[in-house]
Structure to design on (256 residues):
């Protein structure tokens, strides 16, 4: 196209050769969307696959767009099928809402959520992006999540019930194994009580592995052998020939 020096208006500058995102023109030129909604959509689609955020975080990226404006844009995207909300169950059996952004509007039933069963514990309403637009950020390797054992799942559920919101989803294998061992040693109630003792409502723990140093510092529980039946309820045997009190061996602490 030749350069028109006689007309005013807006013209396009040179294209970037790197660090850019490739999107379908249909996304950018969808006249059903406001420019605000298109901007939010393009910004979300530029993120890596399975990247997550919230409306408040999006608003924080732009000082001129408040939370209500971002939520209004997200409603536009939902109305036209670019944003799909699904109710799923996480590892703890809790029902949470996952919102997924698509490059092509979804007009029928939503496809199976690519992160089904592995959504962040206690983080309803997170936004994730799909379709993997070609972008520099997609080259960052994803960190695989460690499957949680029954003991960790039980502990996570107990923590949530106690009002502790730290997520157990991103535990590394060694941390998950350590927590399994700690549950076996101390039990779930003791670990929850310890975590609750350092809980700060204004600045809560966000990741469960942050409690590991505290849990590891707990004293080993005192384990008693089963009562033998020869001693009284306090663990004493009849006095010896010299009239001295005799402590029964069954009441001595056993090795933990």
């Amino acid at each position: 196209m030749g350069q028109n020096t006689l007309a005013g208006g807006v013209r396009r500058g040179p294209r970037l050769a790197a660090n850019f995102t490739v999107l379908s023109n249909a996304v950018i030129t969808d006249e059903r969307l406001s420019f605000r909604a298109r901007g939010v959509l393009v910004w979300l689609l530029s993120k890596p696959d399975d990247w997550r955020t919230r409306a408040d975080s999006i608003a924080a990226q732009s000082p001129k767009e408040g939370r209500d404006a971002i939520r209004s844009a997200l409603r536009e995207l939902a109305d036209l099928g670019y944003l799909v909300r699904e109710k799923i169950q996480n590892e703890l059996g809790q029902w949470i809402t996952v919102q997924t952004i698509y490059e092509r509007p979804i007009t029928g039933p939503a496809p199976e959520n690519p992160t089904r069963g592995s959504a962040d514990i206690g983080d309803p309403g997170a936004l994730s992006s799909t379709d993997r637009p070609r972008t520099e950020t997609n080259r960052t390797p994803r960190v695989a999540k460690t499957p949680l054992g029954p003991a960790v799942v039980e502990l996570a559920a107990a923590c949530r019930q106690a009002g502790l919101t730290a997520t157990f989803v991103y535990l590394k294998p060694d941390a998950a194994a350590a927590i399994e061992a700690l549950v076996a040693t101390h039990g779930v109630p003791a670990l929850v009580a310890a975590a609750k003792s350092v809980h700060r409502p204004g600045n809560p723990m966000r990741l469960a592995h942050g409690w590991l140093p505290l849990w590891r510092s707990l004293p080993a529980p005192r384990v008693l052998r089963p009562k033998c039946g020869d001693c009284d309820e306090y663990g004493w045997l009849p006095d010896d020939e010299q009239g001295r009190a005799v402590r029964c061996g069954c009441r001595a602490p056993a090795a933990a």
